[in-house]
Design a protein that fits this description.
single chain, alpha+beta, Deoxyribonuclease I, Chain A, 2 domains, 6-stranded mixed β-sheet, 9 helices, endonuclease, metal-binding, DNA damage, magnesium
Length: 340
């Protein structure tokens, strides 16, 4: 440190703070929001912290200073966190006639309130789905719309609300032999499921929509709200998400079938609810077969991945792709999986 000039001493001081916060954030998936909601909120900043630490490594590398070791070591310790943010390898792409193409998409009410200057969003989404040919489609913030043309699918939807009926839906090209809903108290969010038959296999598909953070993707969250109020609101949301995840897992534990989970968790891969739902026997399709940032939410400040497809150990994950199309504030994701 003695060989650093005054400016670089200040840079290293900031570097030390950011590296320490990132190191502590590695514990966040194991901290229950019910115990410390304030600390859990930090999970939203992990993508930003990773990117800033990478920039510090580059800065010290270009300056030929050993201080690069601080952020580099912290990043290496949390290599799995980096893998959840960015996949350096090429996308896995295994074509197999036995593949099941599973899509997840938060459709944001098919642009009901004209957030996007496009009057044909339901039709555009229909055309997109027809082009990609998924076998299973899981939709959040769904509402019945005459412009959505998916006649070749079986469908299960659960709707609520007074003026505008909306909720979750699952579309399947395979016959649905059972279906149901897991109700979350005091909210319109819930989880639904269907059991579908493909050949000799019965597969349970879950569509999970956890409590929303209610953050507008196009604006600065602090612009219209103080940081104190924002942390309090998000902390309360994380507590609700924890309770909702517990209800979902209680239901899932009773399933005797092979399981695929789709959904909008409204939280990142560094959160307690993601870690809890994923557990030890589910595989994140992006981590197994994706590449790049894999962002699923059109947040303008840094890449955010809050929509997921997971499959249990009965499946091989042969492909994953995010489609950055502008029909919602979320991007659709699709994975191709095969029963082992």
């Amino acid at each position: 440190m003695s060989k650093l000039n005054l400016f670089n001493k200040f840079v290293f001081f900031i570097n030390s703070i950011v590296a320490t916060i990132l190191l502590l954030s590695y514990l966040l998936p194991y901290v229950e929001p019910e115990r410390s909601a304030f600390i859990s909120v930090l999970s939203l900043t992990v993508p930003f912290l990773i990117i800033v630490n990478i920039l510090f490594v580059i800065y010290w590398l270009l300056s030929v200073k050993k201080q690069l070791l601080l952020s580099l070591i912290v990043l290496l310790i949390g290599f799995n966190h980096i893998a959840s943010l960015y996949r350096f390898s090429a996308s896995k792409h295994v074509e197999d006639d036995a593949n099941i193409a599973v899509m997840n998409y938060n459709v944001r009410l098919f642009n009901l309130f004209k957030w996007i200057p496009n009057p044909d969003v339901p039709f555009e989404i229909s055309q997109f789905i027809k082009d990609k040919k998924p076998d299973i489609i899981s939709m959040q913030e769904y509402r019945p719309d005459d412009g959505l043309a998916l006649q070749e699918y079986y469908k299960f939807e659960v709707l609520s609300g007074n003026k505008i009926k909306n909720g979750q839906a699952i579309f399947s090209k395979f016959p649905i032999i059972n279906k149901g809903s897991i109700e979350f108290p005091n909210t319109y969010n819930n989880a639904i499921f269907v059991d579908v038959v493909k050949g000799k296999d019965t597969i349970r598909i879950y569509n999970v929509h956890l409590q929303s953070l209610k953050i507008d993707a196009s604006t600065d969250p602090l612009k219209n709200e103080t940081s104190e109020n924002l942390f309090k609101r998000v902390g309360n949301t994380f507590r609700l998400q924890q309770a909702q995840a517990d209800l979902f897992l209680e239901h899932k534990a009773k399933s005797q079938y092979k399981v695929i989970i789709c959904g909008d968790f409204n939280n990142t891969a560094y959160s307690y609810v993601y870690n809890k739902i994923k557990g030890d026997n589910l595989n994140d399709a992006f981590v197994e077969a994706g590449n790049g940032f894999g962002r699923t939410f059109n947040f303008k400040f840094f890449p955010v991945r809050i929509d997921f497809i997971m499959a249990d150990d009965n499946f091989e994950i042969n492909n994953f792709k995010t489609f950055e199309i502008g029909f919602s504030d979320h991007f659709p994701i699709m994975s191709k999986v095969k029963v082992k």
